[in-house]
Amino acid sequence: MKNFIVFSDVHGDFSSFEKLLNFASKNDGLFFAGDGNNFFSSIQKNENYFYVKGNCDQTGIDEKVVEIDGVKILLVHGHNQGVKSGYLRLQLYAKQKGVSVVIFGHTHIPFVGEEDGLLMINPGTCSYYGMQKTYACLCISNGKASAYINLLK
Of 8, 34, 59, 71, which is the most exposed, with the fewest CB atoms less than 10 Å away? Predict the structure, then answer.
């Protein structure tokens, strides 16, 4: 089994970023769905750290598709797919990409759900811009993925 820390929307909260990096170092890696990727320039590169830019980031890529133990994952911020207006465009886009998991942010609202065989994960925000600081854990085992939300304390 592989475990990944999933987070998004740091928005300048470096102490939360450091906590989550520490968690990730005790797991198999991390997925970061944008808005704060400038912090990544200060850390050592790791092949199991995946990140994309958000609407508040100046540099980076808009999306990344990775495959881990037979599970294909799309990582986006979500603003280009209009996630603040609903998840349908994101679901259709993920299906076009042929993935079984999509990780996104932008809304600052934590969400884990499955729709038509697609696992959707929004870790919420780990910054002071949310109702509460949250992140997600992604577990991959035997070609299957599951996820859950955690409070960041």
Answer: 59
